[in-house]
Amino acid sequence: MFAELLNMAIVAPQLHNLNSWLVGVPRIRLGHPLKVPSGVWVLCGYGRMGQELHHRLVRHGIEVVIIDPNAEECAAPGRIIRGFADYDTLREAGVELAAGIVAGTDKAPMVERLIDADASIPAGLISQERAVLVTDAI
Question: CA angle 61-67-68, nearest 5°?
Fold first, then answer.
């Protein structure tokens, strides 16, 4: 479901805006669709959800860096960093310059705290729990 919402935000931002408004997402105003940032995205976790998110992002020409402790099992194209999403792996992934971060893991709250604690990280964050995109552009 979450991968579908992200996909909708990429390919049909007006529809995503309407859907978010209808389900009551806070701070959503009709006529102000979400603009998904372009550039490199960091994907934390490559389980079932991470794989689906990766597939959809890559399908739309978005470059993705994966952080996963089981990186040797990842058959995904592109850059893969072995480890858990922590301060060091996020830095290694280039989070300071990332267009967005997807925390597709049960560690999403920890990733949010790491990013919130570091004011030098201007990237967006999508967490499965909140299912919203937070960026400087909003």
Answer: 120
Which amino acid does the sequence have at 65?
V
Domain 36-134 has CATH 3.40.50.720: yes
pLDDT digits (tens, 9 = 90+) for 55-93: 888 888 889 999 998 877 777 778 999 998 888 888 899
Confidence of residue 107 (pLDDT cuts 50, 70, 90): low
User: CA-CA distances (angstroms) from residue 52 to 20, 24, 55, 82?
Assistant: 21, 25, 5, 19
Alpha-carbon distances of 45 from 4, 35, 74, 93, rounded to whole Å: 17, 24, 10, 13
Where along the chain do its domains lie?
A: 36-134
Nearest to 126 by CA among 22, 5, 38: 5
Q: Which H or E run contains 108?
A: helix 108-117
